[in-house]
Amino acid sequence: MPSITWTVLLDLDQTLVLTSALDSLRTQRAWSQIYQQFHRTHLPPGTREFLCQIRDVARLGIVTNTPRPYAEKLVAYHHLDVPVVVAFHDTNKHKPDPEPVLTAMQKLHSRVDQCCYIGDSPRDLQAALNAKIFPIGLCWDGTLSHSWETTIGHPLCSNWDDVLTVLHQLMPSTIKVNREVKR
What we know:
This protein has eight helices and five strands. Helix content is 36%, strand content 13%.
């Protein structure tokens, strides 16, 4: 097996895990209540398959503006095997500043030209651009403005298959995209 040279970083909330059901509690910072409500969160369709496929060709990390205990508990609740999590208290600056992205890259021994960041908000995409890595917008609910397509020069994705297509374009020799032939 060839050595893994690419890194795929992911935002946590509304990208890797759909957590909008917890928004009001998160606004109140009611962390103990939030932890009891993780059953109201869920993975987007195909998330486990996506992570399994990407894990074979890229290092994985999470970059989030949420507190570490929340991030770690949410990742554990959903049994996600992502080895690096950079959370709010791990850096002095936060997204859209590139510091959290660069910290994750350092932990994963990543190169700028072989790293991308997948997120659902303008601050995620701006953090990737500020870190000089490839931004991938992933919008499950239509809240990420399509004006970002023009700004970042890349299409927004609406599912993991779209993300795989973009990753295949970035690293064609490592990502295989299964396409169903329509007749």
